[in-house]
Design a protein that fits this description.
Length: 325
Amino acid sequence: MYAQMIKSEATQEDPEKLAAFQARIDAGEKIEPKDWMPQGYRKTLIRQIGQHAHSEIVGQLPEGNWITRAPTLERKAILLAKVQDEAGHGLYLYCAAETLGVTRDELTEMLLDGRMKYSSIFNYPTLTWADMGAVGWLVDGAAIMNQVPLQRTSFGPYSRAMIRICKEESFHQRQGYDIMMKMANGTPAQKKMAQDALNRFWYPSLMMFGPSDKESVHSEQSMAWKIKMNTNDELRQKFVDQTVPQAEYLGLTVPDENLKWNEETGHYDFSQPDWSEFFDVLKGNGPCNRERLAARNKAWDDGKWVRDGLLAHAEKKAARRVAAE
Ligand code: BYC
């Protein structure tokens, strides 16, 4: 539906302008906010960057859950820093989206009333401290796999935001792996917790890359516009190839009986996640969808007095300036 809408809008646009735009993309030029761009390009970016920003913000919730229960002061300081980084990533991304003509308030309202999505992964609960390891290792690992290529994306503000975000995500991934190493080399009970966290987060992490290429609605057009640099399945395969040896090093077992190295392809063969579960989570029926949206709605409502105060202050200042002129 969305793709069709974009296509029909694109056909109404000046073919010469469209061709010149595509030539700029093909030549590897960056598109900047004041440049002419097709409506579909603008809309796709707002959708993707907005969804990404929301994911960073909602992504604070499962980890924020463990700040008060981190096992040591050092672990608590590290987790606190990581969660603050996610808030910062959300802000860079909202700023990048704002350059396309949408306000941060509009984006937030679309998140809160369910018109915009955030990553499916954050609808799963974090039940033990080992989940902080699994989230850093697998979820941030998957995020990096997706986001490193996005540093070369065609829209200037998005690609520049990605450069900074990727630097921080690498630290996040390492801190997660460090927690997993401690747990996997700890007591039998700790190792069991680490294995349990891997069991629960493996398939939801594979789902982060989006549906299979056959089911993906936007990939073809987004790749032609270099909004996306790889297909969902390409990135998922890269993630599996990178992560399996890391699990082996930890002495943990990836919960997939079909996982095996394929000499011919030079990649691991692996089982697909349960895609019906993925689409159900997208519809709002994951284990934590309602809880996450309720938390974001509460934060928005609780912050109203701050927004009102800031607005009143700005209006008063503007009125004083007008009176002085
Ligand atoms: N969750 O045509 P497709 C992070 C939707 S990491 C929810 O392939 P597209 C973080 C998709 O929106 C996560 N929805 O779509 C890490 C579309 O529905 P609509 C954030 C998903 O856009 C650690 C439909 O399915 N990263 O922030 O070409 C700590 C069909 O899919 C998902 C990004 O957002 C999903 N997993 O490709 C804290 C990276 N997958 O919109 C924070 C940037 C698909 O038509 N985003 N859908 O209703 C992307 O690269 C792409 O948007 C995706 C999907 C690869 C995710």
